[in-house]
Structures are given as C-alpha cells and as structure tokens.
Amino acid sequence: MSAITIALHRAMRLDGALGVAVVDYVSRMTLGTLGRPDGLDLAKAASGGTDVVRAKLAALTLMGYAPVRLEDILITLDTEYHLIRPLNRRTHEGLFLYVVLDRHRTDLATVRKELRQIEWLL
C-alpha cells in the first residue's frame, strides 16, 4: 500500500471526516482521494483548493513571511469545514492535504494534531 493510500485512510478515521485528498498545487493534480461528501466532487474541490493555496502563498510572500509558516487554511461552511494543510516537509514541497469535515462532529484541535502526524507518513 502506498504512503498516500495509508495517509488517506488514516485521515478518514478522524471524527467527522467526510473526505480527504492529497493534491499537488503546482500541477493541480489530485494524487488520491477517499470518501464521498454529499453533493461534493472531492477531486474538483481539491483541485480548486490549489487556487486558495497559491493565493495565500503569494500573499505571504508579499508580506515577507516564509511559506513554511502556513500551517493550514480553514474554510468554514454552514455544515462543513474544509481544511487545507500544505505539506511543508522539503521532500513534499507542492503537496497539500484537503480534508472535508462534518462541522458538528469535528474537534479542530484534534484534527490539526492528527494531520501533523499524517504529514510524516507522506
């Protein structure tokens, strides 16, 4: 089983996880997905997340911040959280995790802690 597959399965064990993807924001390529959030094409949402990551990294550069300071980006919807976590390890530059979570069943602090651990799998 590949590291991406293992990471996807581990992320889906998070309380409230509805779907997860690993995406390359340089090429816009989705490297893997797992889960089926209602009414959401996870691959399209994850690919669209590349625009969010690129915009935020450009804004950080303008402010003089190093991209490694970007831990995650949270998008809050009425019933869901969409959490984008760029993988800052040098070997995975350009990749991010895109996680869709049920807003009412998720503890963000726990999710963030677990995503830090999952990052080391990739």
Structure description:
This protein is of the alpha+beta class. The protein has a single domain, classed as Beta-Lactamase (2-Layer Sandwich), CATH 3.30.450. Helix content is 36%, strand content 28%. A five-stranded antiparallel beta sheet has the order 2-1-5-4-3, sandwiched between helices. The longest helix is centred in the middle third of the chain and has 22 residues, at 42-63.
Q: CATH class, anyone?
A: Alpha Beta
Summed up, the domain count is 1
CATH superfamily: Dynein light chain 2a, cytoplasmic
Q: What structural category do the secondary elements indicate?
A: alpha+beta
Radius of gyration: 13 Å
- Helices and strands, in order, run as HEEHEEEH
Low-confidence stretches: none
Question: What characteristics describe this protein?
Answer:
single chain; 122 residues; alpha+beta; Beta-Lactamase; five-stranded antiparallel beta sheet; 36% helix; globular
List the helices and strands and how they pair.
Elements: H1 3-12, E1 17-24, E2 29-35, H2 42-63, E3 73-76, E4 80-86, E5 95-102, H3 108-119
Antiparallel strand pairs: 1-2, 1-5, 3-4, 4-5
